[in-house]
Amino acid sequence: MDCILLFTNSNPRGGKRGFKTCREIKTKLGVLLQKPENGIDLIIPYPEKTEKKPEKQQKPTPEEAAQWRESLDRVLNNSYGLAAFRSFLQSEFSDENIEFWVTCEDFKKIKNPVKMATKAKKIYEDFIQSEGPREVNIDHFTKDVTLRNLVDLSPTTFDLAQKRIFALMEKDSFSRFLRSEQYQELLVN
């Protein structure tokens, strides 16, 4: 510990002004330098920030992959299935529907009203608005209902549009996915 000499105006013993040595300072401040017997007393508890690690996508067994034929829901509720379906749609340059669906699922989890409003605006501009960069194919009635829902935001704001897109994927993209080489490989390996 570095030490400096302190000049004091008065001596507690009534003596003259003088310098205090490092030893005197250390002795008097020694109490502050001592470690407590139980160090736990000084620890202030706070919730540790745990980093969310991305789920490791485990390749399904052929039996599990075969069950995906039953419904699009089974594919979307499986992390590997969702990734495979998304990859398939990207290969067809038609991934805006799955991106919209996933974005809506994320939107439903938002609790903060400010974040919800920001996300809703982005979803509308990207996917719903005419000429949006990733505009999904929904009818005018659904667009109008969704636009009205933006006035009073809730986790269900995009539900109608999301259901329409789900139905579209189920009817069209899902059957193509099941016939794809990508899916067929999962049934063999």
From TrEMBL:
PROSITE patterns reported for this sequence: RGS (PS50132)
Domain of life according to the entry: Eukaryota
Biased composition (Basic and acidic residues): 48-67
Region: Disordered, residue numbers: 46-67
Record's keyword annotation contains Iron-sulfur: no
InterPro entries: RGS, RGS_sf, RGS_subdom1/3, RGS_subdomain_2
Residue runs in coiled coils: none
Alphabetized UniProt keyword annotations: Signal transduction inhibitor
GO biological process, one term: negative regulation of signal transduction
Keyword hit for Transferase: no
Domain RGS residue range list: 71-187
Family annotation (SUPFAM superfamilies): Regulator of G-protein signaling, RGS
Descriptive protein name: Regulator of G protein signaling 5a
Gene, per the UniProt record: rgs5a
